Automatic annotation (TrEMBL):
CDD domains: HTH_XRE
Keyword DNA-binding: yes
Record protein name field: Helix-turn-helix transcriptional regulator
InterPro entries linked to this entry: Cro/C1-type_HTH, Lambda_DNA-bd_dom_sf, TransReg_Diox_bact_type
Amino acid sequence: MLISEKIFYLIGKNKLTQKEFSEQTGISQSTISDWKRKKTNPSADKILKICEVLKVTPYELLSESDISKDGKMDCILALDKEEEFLLEGFRDLHSRQKDRLIGYLTALREK
């Protein structure tokens, strides 16, 4: 998978328009359009800003990950200790407990 394909997936995941992504990264809309149209990747000097805007690490963006059939990105995530604790705890919960936790998180994010 091309890096640019991951970028467009992440733009959508972050609910950004191409114009908003352009404004936040300082990369022209025509350059971004070229990535899609010509199936090319961004130059190396743009990667760090792209990762900052899309909230991913350079490793996540540049790794050999792929987007699965269900539209999720298959990649290794760099987690800090708190995120690792939460993820491991979530995986240990029973189905109903997971549903409750997801409901609580949804409510917290709406505030």
